[in-house]
Amino acid sequence: MPGSAGMKLASLDSLFGVTDTPVADATCQGSEIEVPLADLHSFKNHPFKVFDDNAMQELAESIRQHGVLIPAIVRVSGDGGYEIIAGHRRRHACELAGIVCMPVIVRELDDDEATLCMVNSNLQRERILPSERAFAYKMMMDALKRQGKRNDLSSTQLEQKSKRETSVAKVAMRCGVDRNQIQRFIRLTELIQPLLDMVDAKKLPLNTGVELSYLSSDNQQIVHEVMAEHKRKPSIEQAKQLRELQNTDSLQPRTVAELLETVAPDRFTDNVKLPRDLLAQCFQSHTKETIETVIAEALEKLLQGAV
Questions:
Q1: 174-188 pLDDT, tens digit each
Q2: What residue segments make up the domains of the chain, in order of their start?
Q3: Which of 3.60.15.10, 3.90.1530.30, 3.30.70.980, 3.40.50.2300 would CATH assign to domain 2-122?
Q4: Which of 104, 105, 120 is nearest to 25 (CA)?
């Protein structure tokens, strides 16, 4: 029955993290073949991490029992073998399941088409770290920018002026995320790794990380070292002050430490109150810390356009 087949396909798509969302502008046509795992190479600068979590173990067990039901998408690699565009998790699950080959669909895609396809397919994942989203958006923006330049060669300046959208706006439109939010995430790619890791671990608020990204790498290192030594992290207002100190060449370890030791001034958010009856309905026997964590995570998802 068509209806049953559709439901089965939808459930399999959900299991393997694939959706019906069109991937960039590439078609799904291509030759399907079986390829040894050793011949499948990760996409260059692939921004998405592959975790050995419970979901991965479940995927490996499913593949062990039923095989890979949805082929990976690859393209021929110039160095031999194939470059994975969509299917990094499936490849790793095959390794865990002891399977040496997996089905793939081979597509003919140039670098920018492959990048857009890779980013779009992976953005459908349920779990995405801020750093993954940041580098994915940047890769998409750069690919669209290069495509725009190629298109400009065959269009007049007047047409460019009247029809061209900024690359950021195109990313926002494709991903269904606010343009300003896309820009904030892309700014995270300017953070040094220790600070970016803190954002991923939710030890540093995303918007504070955005403000710190405007500091030079050397100044970010100073800030990180002072944070570690004094076990304090800047508020978003203090991060903005650090930017001002950088502009006046006054950002030194001592001044950073003094700033972090100051008590942040009252803001309107400090006095926000939630209805007690609403909290009681949602949190019956939870600690204050748990309630604050849940609310903070919900707000982070809201900022990321996930809800």
A1: 998 999 999 999 999
A2: 2-122, 129-190, 192-271, 273-303
A3: 3.90.1530.30
A4: 120
Distance (Å, whole) CA 31 – CA 156: 38
Contact present, 8 and 44 (Cβ < 8 Å) = no
d(CA 198, CA 161): 41
Say yes or no to pLDDT of 89 above 80: yes
Single out the residue of 74, 140, 84 nearest to residue 107, CA to CA: 74
Please state, in angstroms and as integers, the Cα–Cα distance from residue 144 to each residue in 47, 78, 86, following that order.
17, 23, 19
Q: How wide is the angle at C-alpha 303 spanned by C-alphas 299 and 306, nearest 5°?
A: 90
Question: Does pTM surpass 0.90?
Answer: no
User: 71 near 32, Cβ under 8 Å?
Assistant: yes
Q: Return the CA Rg of the chain.
A: 23
Q: Can you tell me whether residue 84 is helix, strand or coil?
A: strand
Q: For residue 126, what pLDDT is reported?
A: 79
